[in-house]
Amino acid sequence: MQAISKAELSLTAPGRAVHRGPSEAVVAVAPAAESAEGKGAKVRALLRARLGEDIYTSWFKALEFESFDGKTVKVSVPVVFLRKWIQSHYMDELLRCCKAEFKTAELVDVTLRQPGSPPARTVAREAEAQKLAREASEPRALGQIEPVRMPVIRPVAGRTSVDGFEGSPLDPHHTFDNFVVGASNRMAHAGAIQVAETVLTDSPAFNPLYLYSSVGMGKTHLLQAIAWEVKRRAENAQVLYLTAERFRYQFVEALRAQDSLSFKEKFRSINMLLIDDLEFMQGEKTEQEFDHIINALLDGGRQVVVASARHPAQIERLNERMRSRLQRGLVAEIGSFDCELRCRVLDQRLAEKRAQDPGFELSREVVEILASRLTESGRELEGAINRLYLTWQHMRAPITPDIAETVVRDLYQGVEPRRIKIEDILRIISRHFGVSKGDLLSQRRHRSVVWPRQIGMYLAKQLTHRSLPEIGRRFGNRDHTTVLHAIRKIEGVIADDASLRDEIDELKKLISH
């Protein structure tokens, strides 16, 4: 047989080479002395010995050796996160170990395997890995990858419906059993429980019930939990859960069909109406219709539950009568989660994942890292658990604090915070204190105007990068010394007034969202 140069050899499958002659015929030659994966098993054994069991299991268990062309060792991993971590932390060590087996290796190329693709090793190579493992007295095959069996989850979503009028979707996980109670949401939870238990009795608890909080704190969860609980207790109960957007859409469709009367009629037989995201109830006719329906329900003794990002007094589109009626029952705020509650939320979401896949675990240290880093909302916490679960599914290795830190960093640094404008501050201050923007920018010196104006200047200095002269110009062409006086005045009062501190914090939240 004609001599074959290195350049003419290529590994099309581990341990089998082909030669393409001038006629491009493929001629099988003798098996290679040892396949890329065969040597790779020895490299993994060396990595395990050099780096230790924990590091090896976390970062190299899923590593597969694909090929070697005499210069580059090509390896693959199942997820981008794993590839980036190896490239940034262990490339020198990986190359050093590869050179021990691939004598002419100059670099290692870490690639990403296609999702869902089967492991590249054949049965023979797996047996080779197992043999090496036995020789090294390891309990498992070196580098063996357990097949990932994704659990099939088919949540049964539902909708409330009254006389054929369908509500917004209900998440089956949003029940009272899955709601984690803490100091910041205890009143809201207790109010929701009482409403759900008494709505169909002769002595309903609170009507209306109004829940408000910033995004991701659980108000939608509680609204839907009420709907699920009432339907559980009385399957025939006429319960309707609607987002403000869906209410508006259905009403506009009725107007287009010139059938607004039938839209009103659908609410006559209702036992309970739950409205979510009230702040998005927009449009003059929509707001008027909403007012009529809520008033009719309350006058008829029907239960109304409302959730919003703001207190009724801070929703400027509400007329005074509606604002007063919404505050007549129970108005309950869901505050920010403290560290203890964040840990308990994480424990709950972890338990839900473990119900699907008992092998998934997070150490207490990892849970505490997540709780300390993710402080904005419950949705962040749930998102972190989902991402760590997906990472674990691909790696089938313990989630170390290093991994958790990386995932958390990506979550809280991945979104650039919204740039706050002085116009945003003026709008929120105007709405909060019931003072027009014109008055804030005017020369009026009545305390009812001066106090909100000073708070606005203080917040502008706190939340923007504007200089004092710039802030003064945006607040009615005032001198920078006036702005400085306002800032010092508010700082002095805050030091001794806890209620003002809370009010300032609430304004900051409203401005930032």
List the helices and strands and how they pair.
Blueprint: E1 10-13, E2 16-20, E3 26-28, H1 36-51, H2 53-59, E4 64-68, E5 72-77, H3 80-89, H4 91-101, E6 107-112, H5 123-135, E7 158-162, E8 165-170, H6 186-198, E9 209-212, H7 219-233, E10 239-243, H8 244-256, H9 260-265, E11 272-276, H10 284-299, E12 303-308, H11 320-326, E13 330-333, H12 339-356, H13 364-373, H14 378-395, H15 401-413, H16 422-433, H17 437-441, H18 447-463, H19 468-474, H20 480-494, H21 498-512
Parallel strand pairs: 5-6, 9-12, 9-13, 10-11, 11-12
Antiparallel strand pairs: 1-2, 2-3, 4-5, 7-8
Describe it.
The protein folds into 4 domains: 36-135, GMP Synthetase, Chain A, domain 3, CATH 3.30.300.180; 158-333, P-loop containing nucleotide triphosphate hydrolases (Rossmann fold, 3-Layer(aba) Sandwich), CATH 3.40.50; 339-413, Helicase, Ruva Protein, domain 3 (Orthogonal Bundle), CATH 1.10.8; 422-512, Chromosomal Replication Initiator Protein Dnaa, Chain: A. Helices cover 50% and strands 12% of the residues. With 513 residues, the chain is an alpha/beta fold. The strands form 4 sheets. The protein has a 5-stranded parallel beta sheet with strand order 10-11-12-9-13, with helices on both faces. Helix 13 runs parallel beside helix 15 (401-413) and helix 14 packs across helix 15 (401-413).
Which properties best describe this structure?
513 residues, alpha/beta, GMP Synthetase, Chain A, domain 3, Rossmann fold, Helicase, Ruva Protein, domain 3, 5-stranded parallel β-sheet
How would you concisely characterize the structure shown here?
It contains 21 helices and 13 strands.
